[in-house]
Design a protein that fits this description.
The chain has 92 residues and is mostly helical. It has one domain (18-89). It is 68% helix and 11% strand. It contains two helices and two strands. The protein has helices at residues 10-36, 54-89; strands at residues 38-42, 48-52. The protein has a two-stranded antiparallel ribbon. Strand 1 (38-42) and strand 2 form a beta hairpin. Helix 1 (10-36) packs antiparallel against helix 2 (54-89). It starts with 9 loop residues before the first helix and ends with a helix.
Length: 92
């Protein structure tokens, strides 16, 4: 089988997975903030009001950051794989 008939290489797949993880992390964090970020607290005299919970917003930002870090690590692994693939076929 020739090189062009093999489809995606390992580095391309790993790079794609990295981007998918970054996007999923950003979306999940944003949804978490929208769903759990506002909480009801009692008013001083009557009823309740909704305010932004700092803990929940920071947790959502942490989810986004975690997705970004894991995706970035997958892209760095893809970079190492790309280097090895190029070295193997003699481009470097």
């Amino acid at each position: 089988m020739s090189e062009e008939n093999q489809g995606m290489r390992e580095s391309e797949v790993c790079n794609f997975i990295g981007w998918v993880l970054i996007v999923i992390g950003l979306i999940a964090g944003f949804i978490f903030i929208l769903v759990f970020g506002r909480v009801e607290v009692p008013r001083e005299y009557y009823g309740t009001e909704k305010v932004w919970s700092g803990v929940m917003v920071i947790t959502g930002i942490g989810i986004m950051l975690n997705g970004f870090i894991v995706g970035y690590l997958f892209q760095k692994i893809a970079s190492l794989l790309r280097y090895q693939e190029n070295k193997k076929i003699g481009l470097n």
